[in-house]
Specification:
Low-confidence stretches: 137-141
CATH topology of the largest domain: Rossmann fold
Order of helices and strands: EHEHEEEEHEEHEHHEHEEH
Number of domains: 2
CATH class of the largest domain: Alpha Beta
Number of strands: 12
Number of helices: 8
Shape: elongated
Length: 282
């Protein structure tokens, strides 16, 4: 089986220009199986490119195995409750893997990724959209959900609790969290208990149920994750299944994270830790 893997040097691109470029690359590859990392740019334009080039496509793939001329892919379904494996007879077959697992899958199959040539541009009629500039997500914008960020920062209900002086400090907590997000470019996640708190709705206006991570929330796919003021109970940790490297900050040495659910647990005050981190990043 002829297998090729492509990577993109940048997440920047427009749909009108990427679709014809991706379609031309798929036609020119002459491969039976094409592997690409499932970044936001690929997920936006690759399905249309596959349709134009007569290819089949599947996304959110977490594993690929090849036996002779048969390729089998695996992915989660039904909100990550069912793990399924399947194959397709259609060729070429485009497989968009989890971005964090892309290097591992390529190494497993013995394939060296090649840069995807995006030199093929659309016609003037197809590219009427003009890009007037780019704004970095780490510049303090309103968006806190960043699928392509390298780090997931999760805030728990502990940010709203009383501190050593006997009072809660919601404005200070909000400033610390947003300061870290602006400096690091991390994506913001939350526990269900925090987004359900009425008192946190006004102070944490930058957070909503869209940020919720866990069994009834999202299952992010960032390479690294940092949990703060979160106990790490199973309904929440189930949303971390695709996070490769996990760290947590909690004052309770016997919290859920300590039960083998994180690589490193810092038994410390998250307020003090994150303030120091922000100072070091300034």
């Amino acid at each position: 089986m002829n297998i090729k893997a492509f990577t993109l040097d940048s997440i920047e691109g427009t749909y009108a220009k990427d679709v014809p470029a991706f379609a031309a690359a798929l036609k020119g590859a002459g491969a039976d199986l094409v592997l690409v990392p499932g970044t936001s740019r690929v997920r936006r334009a690759m399905p249309a490119a596959a349709m134009r080039s007569g290819a089949a496509i599947d996304v959110n793939v977490v594993d690929v195995s090849v036996e002779g001329e048969k390729a089998v892919v695996s992915r989660w379904a039904y909100r990550q409750r069912i793990f399924c494996s399947f194959s397709r007879a259609a060729r070429p077959w485009v497989v968009a893997t989890d971005p964090a697992l892309f290097p591992e899958i390529c190494a497993k199959l013995g394939v060296t990724p090649e840069p995807l040539d995006c030199g093929q541009q659309g016609t003037d009629a197809a590219t009427r959209t003009k890009c007037n500039g780019l704004v970095s997500a780490a510049g303090g914008g309103e968006s806190t959900i960043r699928p392509d960020a390298k780090l997931l920062f999760v805030a728990g209900a502990g940010w709203t609790k009383k501190q050593a002086d006997g009072a809660s400090h919601l404005p200070e907590a909000a400033e610390t969290i947003t300061g870290f997000l602006a400096k690091s470019g991390a994506s913001l996640g939350s526990s269900k208990s925090l987004v359900d708190m009425p008192e946190a709705a006004q102070a944490f206006s930058f957070m909503s149920h869209m940020n919720q991570v866990g069994q009834t929330g999202a299952t992010p796919r960032h390479p690294k994750g940092l949990a703060t003021c979160c106990h790490g109970e199973e309904p929440h940790v189930v949303g971390w299944r695709f996070i490769s490297e996990r760290r947590a900050v909690n004052l309770d040495a016997n919290c859920g994270w300590a039960q083998g659910k994180t690589d490193v647990l810092y038994v410390a005050d998250a307020f003090a830790v994150m303030k120091k981190v922000n100072e070091l990043m300034s």
